[in-house]
Design brief:
By secondary structure, this protein is an alpha+beta fold. The chain is 31% helix and 27% strand. It binds glycyl-adenosine-5'-phosphate.
Length: 429
């Protein structure tokens, strides 16, 4: 884990939040590489689960919603973890993270466990009374439920159909830890898939397969599916399968697939008085049931870094990220930075690649070996070197460049005219 945290910081994937003010536990900032990786994951997810599926609708709901949403959903009352506090130093722990009855910090006595609601409270508007109180959303899902009827009214979708959303969620975790694994601000990618009750098992199984496809696309091998025992289920769920990944600190939840029944729509219908029933062409109106595949984006990044991190003494570190997800797809080098004709040819190629391929970098620092190392560390699949043969080589090497592949370390001469197509085909864009 230390290696991942250090690589993430050094190469601009993830920085500690508010760092020079001493940081703020549970908050992280994504740097230039991190933000590209994050977007590539979001784009792949959106393409796979929204754009390629005819009956899934996208949504981007407000993070802050009326407090009644959280009363109806049960979060205001029930979104709590058991907490214990040290009687001496007052440090607080999540009860299920503590194995002894002594404080890990000072060895003091721990008090009785009490419930701690993890939602961040905030006030809306100038008046600071109970009515102005609400919360930062602890899951994106509720934004979907409160827009269920809007989508129904706009599109009259046939059952089954889904609504998908990518966005921030906030939880005042008692003990944020393990890098971005348990943070207080994180991104979720969620789908609420509305089905007829009689079909829930079939739809649940379909989603299980679909989620496995996603894990394969990410190249994540160490994923185990765990059926959550009944007494451990969230307050809204009748069945949940957790996808657990072998993180550096142990196996833990990466994603979840839950059968939420009609719990949420029923609660919102009761609280708001709005009729949320689905009206089929034939038959009686009914409340749909919900299958919810949920994906944590930050945990995805941690799993990807861990899975694709490689290191050996000779080569150093290389991240074998799937090409589609790599923040930089190709880096362009002039063999020597002080040879004007090489630099200008390389600049020309760099500009033309940038127009066609997202994520092209320029590097002319140090020798080519050092540049390969730098690009390997951030997972760049292809490095393109412009050398003297490019300018004035024999007939079969003039106007060609060297393309080096991150995984095989093999080098190929590719004609400049074919370079864009060559890279696009290899990257799969
Ligand atoms: N809407 C359902 C829901 O929110 P959850 O299991 O509480 O279910 C869903 O969260 C996903 O969000 C998790 O599988 C995980 O990937 C991510 N997640 C949850 N809490 C997190 C935290 N504190 N830090 C980072 N990711 C978190």
């Amino acid at each position: 884990m230390e290696k991942l945290v250090s690589l993430a910081k050094r190469r601009g994937f993830i920085y500690p939040g508010s760092e020079f003010y001493g940081g703020l536990a549970g908050f992280w900032d994504y740097g230039p590489m991190g933000v590209e990786l994050k977007r590539n994951i979001e784009n792949l997810w959106w393409k796979m689960f929204v754009q390629s599926v005819p009956n899934i609708y996208g949504l981007d709901a407000a993070i802050i919603m009326n407090q009644k949403v959280w009363q109806a959903s049960g979060h205001a009352e029930g979104f709590s973890d058991l907490m214990v506090e040290c009687k001496e130093c007052k440090k607080r722990y999540r009860a299920d993270h503590i194995k002894s009855d002594r404080c890990l910090e000072c060895g003091g006595d721990l008090g009785e466990a009490s419930l701690f609601n993890m939602m961040f409270e905030t006030r809306v508007g100038a008046k600071q009374d109970e009515d102005s109180k609400t919360y930062l959303r602890p899951e994106t899902a509720q934004g979907i439920f409160v827009n269920f009827k809007n989508v129904l009214d706009s599109y009259s979708p046939k059952m089954p159909f889904g609504i998908a959303q990518i966005g921030k969620a906030f939880r005042n975790e008692i003990s944020p830890r393990d890098f971005v694994f348990r943070s207080r601000e994180f991104t979720q990618m969620e789908i609420e898939y509305f089905v007829e009750e009689k079909n829930w098992e079939k739809e649940f199984d379909n989603w299980l397969l679909f989620m496995r496809e996603w894990n394969e696309a990410l190249g994540l091998k160490n994923v185990k599916e765990i059926d959550t025992p009944r007494d451990n289920l969230a307050h809204y769920s009748k069945k949940t399968i957790d996808f657990e990944y072998e993180f550096p600190f142990g196996r833990s939840e990466l994603y979840g697939l839950a059968y939420r029944t009609d719990y949420d729509l029923k609660k919102h219908m009761e609280e708001s008085g709005e009729d949320l029933r689905y009206r089929p062409h034939e038959g009686e109106p009914f409340l749909p049931h919900v299958i919810e595949p949920t994906f944590g984006l930050d945990r995805t990044i941690l799993a990807l870094l861990n899975e694709h991190y490689n290191e050996n003494g000779e080569r150093g570190v290389w991240l074998a990220l799937p090409y589609k997800l790599a923040p930089v797809k190709a880096a362009v080098f002039p063999l020597l930075r002080n040879k004007e004709e090489l630099v200008s040819k390389a600049r020309e190629i760099y500009s033309s690649l940038r127009k066609e391929i997202p994520g092209v970098a320029w590097d002319d620092n140090g020798n080519v070996g050092k540049r390969y190392r730098r690009q390997d560390e951030v997972g760049t699949p292809f490095c393109v070197t412009i050398d003297f043969d490019t300018l004035e080589g024999e007939e079969n090497s003039k106007d060609t460049v060297t393309v080096r592949n991150r995984d095989t370390m093999k080098q190929e001469r590719v004609a400049i005219d074919d370079l864009v197509d060559y890279l696009k085909e290899k990257i799969g864009i």
